[in-house]
Amino acid sequence: MAFACCQCITPVLLLFVIGFGILPCHSVNITVRNSADKICIYADMMINFTVQYQTITNKTRNATLQVPDDVITNGSFCGNESSMPLLKISFGKSYEHYWSISFTNTTSSYKGHELTFAYNISDKDTFPDAKEEGIKVVLQNDTMDYVPLNEIYRCNSVDVIYVSEVFQIFWNVHLQAFVDNGTISTKEFVCKADISSTTAAPTTAAHTTTPAANTTTPAANTTTPAANATTVPVTTTAPTSSPPVKPDTGNYNVTGKGGDICLLATVGLQLSYSSSTNKTDTRILNINPNLTQASGSCNESGRAVLTLTDGGKFVEFTFAINNSSNKFFLKEVKVNVTDPDPFSGGNDSLNYWQASVGSSYMCNKEQRIVVTENITLSTFSLQVQPFSVTKGNFSKAQECSMDDDSMLIPIIVGAALAGLILIVVIAYIIGRRRSYVGYQTL
Question: Which residue has the higher pLDDT, 275 or 120?
């Protein structure tokens, strides 16, 4: 997680947040206590959710779930030798929606392990005319840095995690797990996003906390988080009207339920988008792989998803399988940009990057994917395998036509021979004409 107080949010990003209906600016202050009534988990943060869902008329709508300050924390757990600590907050009229984060630790540090967000799409007040019903659950590996034990994690940068049609928006986060002897630390561990915004070296700073009334002494519940997408530390360069340099190549992967890598991708990615039809405001930006968060999902029904995000910019690739040809292909691309200018778009009827299942697709040269008339993706040094990954390695690659040089040499040789023959024929005709003129003079 990475997260800014209302005063710290840029006007453009605040406009985006308001556009989704996320108006409140109050924090959720929570403590979880053990059987000795000592604090073991502390959290003070701002959090909201926006869910994209289909209506009964097959239209897409956005529903915003605003987290109030009167949440309940039933199910939270301090952890023991066999179970991870868990912070769980439930909210809604009947507390039918919940968000949780589990924690893991080493001998000297701790971090968030998995985020879970569950929402009841049968709630007609929140999801009017929803096509689906029941509880939907979104799982996401947390991207929180490892934090030294006995220090509080602080992230004032806005972080927007987008996965499975859900925006999870966090900011102004102060969080500490494995609290020592019930005393919340005054030392802050600052997240990378905050450090990069100030170009300062990693430091710890003083922090003062006042635990609020949202306190629980949980029973000995145990929670076993499910495995999901792996994440790697994305950011993008500032959009510019002139094309930036060629993007760096990043290596990304997604992990399946069994813990094995199920999707591999290596690519340098450049995004070009415009909000106007005449494209006078076209912006071009590169994905920076050094800070990119990769997430996604794989399933056996022939669908795989790779999402790349920097907290304010998202590119999501969905792959499918053509059962008749047993080939996979890129079926859908979604783009969401919140900063500097809110923008979103996508296309779910694409047909790029075809290769046989069990192999990978490769295209080293620049390849442009026209997503919509206003969105273009340029890829460089691409290799992707969304299905049947073995031992975390790419299978034999099927190259794109632009990379295939096997016919180039024969074509060049054939062209040269044709040119030589043409020269000989022309010289022969000219020679015959000169000989004919000579005979006529005699």
Answer: 120
